[in-house]
Amino acid sequence: QVQLVESGGGLVQAGGSLRLSCAASGRTFSRYAMGWFRQAPGKEREFVATITWSGGSTYYADSVKGRFTISRDNAKNTVYLQMNSLKPEDTAVYYCAARYVNSGSYHYTKRYEYSYWGQGTQVTVSS
User: Fold this and answer.
1) Which strand (E) or helix (H) includes residue 71?
2) Neighbours of 125 (CB within 10 A)
3) Parallel, antiparallel or unpaired: strands 46-51 and 116-117
4) Three-state SS for 127?
5) 77-90 as b/e, with b when 16 or more CB fall inside 10 Å?
6) How is the chain split among helix, strand and coil, in percent rounded to 5?
7) What is the pLDDT of residues 59-99, one digit of tens each?
8) Residue 4 and residue 21 in contact, taking contact as beta carbons nearer than 8 Å
């Protein structure tokens, strides 16, 4: 079991930056692949970024590639999403998610591949 708590959301102007954090409970955080998803009003929750359990590999949605960076600190049980060059279309509730990994290093991009979810943090980008 792992519990996830996101923070760092807020209101920012287009072109600005925010860093989201997701703090995880539990002693085996380093065995979890982590992901960030987002959901805008009236839209489906969509994949944003994922990082392997070791932090050695990352994968991004095309819409954020080159602007967002996912990272993790296993000593602090925390995963981050650095968001730069923000656009109004990035406005959404951002969720972190966790998936226990027995072996291998894969990129998980589907909602059903994750077992644990945080409560979300609102990001609003004004034009």
Assistant:
1) strand 68-73
2) 20
3) unpaired
4) coil
5) bbbbbebeebeeeb
6) 5, 50, 45
7) 999 999 999 999 999 999 999 999 999 999 999 999 999 99
8) no
